[in-house]
Amino acid sequence: MKEKFLLIALLVCCRTGAQVPDYRNDLKITFLSWGTGSSKISYERVTWPSQTDEITFGLISMGYDKFGNDPKGITVRYAHKWIIAGNVEKPLEGLYIRPELVWSQYRYDNKSGERTTSDMCALFGTAGYQHVWKRLVMDGFIGIGPCLGNRADTYYQHGFITCKATGANIAYTFGMKVGVAF
């Protein structure tokens, strides 16, 4: 009886150890965002096969401000991701496209030294690749889209950059997120 129990326990342990974990959630930080004046954290969850939802919250002022304009505010991002070339065993991994809605509002010292508010919203078409290695998640992306609102005189909105050359209401975004899957 003791031998049968040990054999069953060994088979269960070996089988469990051989399976690829089916992580369906991740928690990520936007790598290097601290070096641009804000700190962002994202939560992503698999909602349908080859689809995820991701929400990002950021505090503007937690980080190094290269413009020296003392920004203070928040930024929020929502994205629905379609994984177009992925790994069935790893539902968070693969090449993806996603629409992304971003809102950023903060107060800062403008070029004339007065405290003013920047309040911008943008809708991006974003593409990227997310890789999952064991529990480590790495996500690189780039996107472009229309924006509207009251932009900062630096054109940097803590999550996206508005087009300075043409004055058009176009913005772009890019970044790298690093986190853990669970």
Textual characterization of the structure:
β5 and β6 form a beta hairpin. Strands 1-2-3-4-5-6-7-9 form an eight-stranded antiparallel barrel. The protein is mainly β and 182 residues long. The chain has one helix at residues 2-18, and strands at 25-31, 38-48, 51-60, 72-87, 90-109, 115-133, 136-150, 161-162, 170-181. The protein is elongated.
Describe the structure concisely for a colleague:
With 182 residues, the protein is mainly beta.
Helix content: under 10%
Question: Order of strands side by side in the largest beta sheet?
Answer: 1-2-3-4-5-6-7-9
**Which consecutive residue ranges, at least 5 long each, have pLDDT under 50?**
13-18
Radius of gyration: 21 Å
What is the N-to-C succession of helices and strands?
HEEEEEEEEE
Reconstruct the topology from this structure.
Blueprint: H1 2-18, E1 25-31, E2 38-48, E3 51-60, E4 72-87, E5 90-109, E6 115-133, E7 136-150, E8 161-162, E9 170-181
Antiparallel strand pairs: 1-2, 1-9, 2-3, 3-4, 4-5, 5-6, 6-7, 7-9, 8-9
List keywords for this structure.
eight-stranded antiparallel β-barrel, mainly beta
